[in-house]
Amino acid sequence: MSVEQEVGIIYKQLMDDLTHPYVNSILPKPSIDKDKLLVYYMLFQTKVNREMAGVYAKSVMIAEVGLSTHETMTVAKLSMKDDIKRRQLTALSGDFYSALYYYSLARNNNTRIVKWVAQAIQIFNIEKCRLYYPKREFGWPQAIEALGSTESALVSQIASKLGLKSWIPVLSDFFLAKKLVGESRDASARTLQSFLNQYLREQLTSDPHQFRQNIEKEVLSSAERFRKSSAKAEKQTGKLADLLAYLNDQMHNYCRCMVEEG
Amino acid sequence: MKWMTLAQIYAEQKKNLKIIEKRLEYSLEAPHPILNQASLDLLRAGGKRIRPLLVLLAAQYGDPERKEVMDSAVTLELIHMASLVHDDVVDDSDLRRGKPTVKAKWDNRVAMYTGDYIFARAIELISKFDHPKAHQVISKVIRDLSLGEIDQIRYLFNWKQNLRCYLLRIKRKTAILMALSCQLGGFASGCSDFVSKKLYYFGYFLGMSYQITDDVLDFVGTEKQLGKPAGSDLRNGNITLPAFYALQDRRLHDSVVSVLESNHPTEREWQSVVESIRNSDAIQMAENLSDLYLKKAIAKLHELPELRVTHSLQEIAEYVGTRKY
């Protein structure tokens, strides 16, 4: 079975764990970053067997889902009952998912990883505040740096704790580029835009053309940094060589899509 | 054996509670000014600290000097605080204990970040506790707490729900955290599973009574005592025990259903329904059920070794039954 197939099975288990019939009848199903799931799975395999790596990868992804659910929280005053209910369930389902990672790891008697994830969640929330509520006005580079930190807060912490610090820049730039490509698509589609998209536009540039250009520039810069840090991390052997190859392919695809769509 | 009043129990635990306040303050420190301020505001808003107190008291059945006892007490208060910040977003509340809520002072997103941050601090702290069973119990309670909150939303304005549905909801919303406080006090102080389980049930019955009393007070309390208009639960569509009993009363049923089903009931209609529930048998019936849970809590205490703390826990149970706000 290929790694992608193994991750497919973990993905299905993860979706089952996250199922709550009532919540799912009101809110869209939580979206799961399959790249991140695969990264966790392979990082954990450097220390434990496949089965446990799957359990840990799934648990950490549940925590990621909890945080990303809360990221969809809105701030506008609401008056319609259905809108209010959606907001209430956004808060509560995020809490439910956040509780599940601890529940899942406690059942496997692994409080060490519980601690790592709890520390990473703290970093994530501090970085989010730094991004959206900066102590002083900041510009594009600072916003992108803070965005990069939030996107890879959990995965960087896990890599660090697993003794894979050289992987942190690789993962940070990969997930930053991926996020920016997503935001770029969101901006082009002109559909309902994320809070981040609106925030970046309001704070940094209201000109849509300029906004898109800035995003593209940042994607290419992070892709370049990714290539350099990948070269350094290439000395890694075994499973992680496969991971590096996978991430390189994905990065190539994301950059190509962005250029073609542009 | 000499009985202590609630004030004496708090006075006896003053030193420990002071340490807990310090530990809470340290745990809530954050390297971002908004996160830091939001957390400190919560701490300074105060509270009865009933959960840490229960941990401290339950720990007296074992060795209360173990460091895990303080860690457990701080963890439970942090979990409680984190849930309050998110509850204020869910309930769209601008005031808590007379002070602006995090979501009112900043916004919903800051409230999400603050709650998640505090919750993560709690989990990090308790992760040091080398007790697999305790982690299984704590994590299950945290999961069930959120399931209880989701159920509360699910059954809003649903006047056809049954009593079991209400009881399960308050079990998850309130009782299990009190039960956990007592059980964790047992685990942390090295009590046997047998004693810890008894402590769990004492906390559970106490918590059920506590929440029913809260639900009664929401109807019979004054706006000044409650810090919000009487009958707020019903106005928000939350069918609590007095409203449930009122729905069983043929004389009240139609008027309660009518406000719950109306798209825009007037203030006068709300007041009238709240007033009629307040003056009905529904309040006494709810108080009777609360008393029944208290009796069960006290009966559980009789199954525990008879120590001085047993009387303190009984005093707390009696306070829950007689509190006015």
TrEMBL record, chain A:
Superkingdom of source: Bacteria
Gene3D superfamilies: 1.20.120.1450
Pfam annotation, one family: HEPPP_synt_1
UniProt record, GO biological process: menaquinone biosynthetic process
Record-given protein name: Heptaprenyl diphosphate synthase
Organism listed in the record: Sporolactobacillus shoreae
